[in-house]
């Protein structure tokens, strides 16, 4: 039997449908790479050079700066400075990401993280360019961190399954909807403070998380472009030919991906299993995971590990 957290983290890129650990691994590896770079450049008197290199991957508030480095709208969300900055982001990503991945699957977890990061960056740029309070600081403003994507996952999980309970130290059992509300309120209250840009990004990510899940329940997946890009790079690096992806009409957002051609069986038991899984996922969408019977949970678990 496979190991736990550390096994999956170390082997993040050796397993499919493993977005949570891939995102964790990328964040940690990037953090360590920039940590080593900072130490060596600082010792060698190159602090200014390090700051310049770092700025190329951070999200600028000024539009004229962003146009020169458009990649930063993605790279900034994998970049951290400070051990506590990355520690708390990765803890929340892991705790809430497990829920999202369990209910919606690996691909939609990626959708939430990436779209949340983009939404946070867009709100950040919008406010710094049009709100008088922030515009005076626009040219020097730069942002980094996974917080916007993490907030999207936290709020997305709370929207999806609000009554799931976490047992917190000192506080005891707390429903995740209250955890999400608390952190959104804190971000809003601090949106004019010393880390105003970061708090604005938090709010943008949180809003995206809520609307993503709400629209997904109605059959609209905002993350299809993210999945298409991810599939392109997956095929590119794996050397496999591109596969045309089709979607069934009027499909509910929680139904499983169509089986690959080579995995399909002609016998009736396979078709029945697919139908049962679709019914289970519909039940989750309507009543939540806790409404499932032990047998339904077992079937869902076995299917997800095929």
Automatic annotation (TrEMBL):
The chain crosses the membrane at residues 20-41, 53-76, 82-100, 112-134, 140-161, 168-188, 200-216. Residues 257-267 have a biased composition (Basic and acidic residues). InterPro entries: DUF6576, Peptidase_S54_rhomboid_dom, Rhomboid-like_sf, Rhomboid_protease_S54. This is Rhomboid family intramembrane serine protease. Belongs to the peptidase S54 family. It comes from Echinicola arenosa. GO terms for biological process: proteolysis. Residues 69-217 form the Peptidase S54 rhomboid domain. Residues 250-274 are annotated as: Disordered. It comes from the Bacteria.
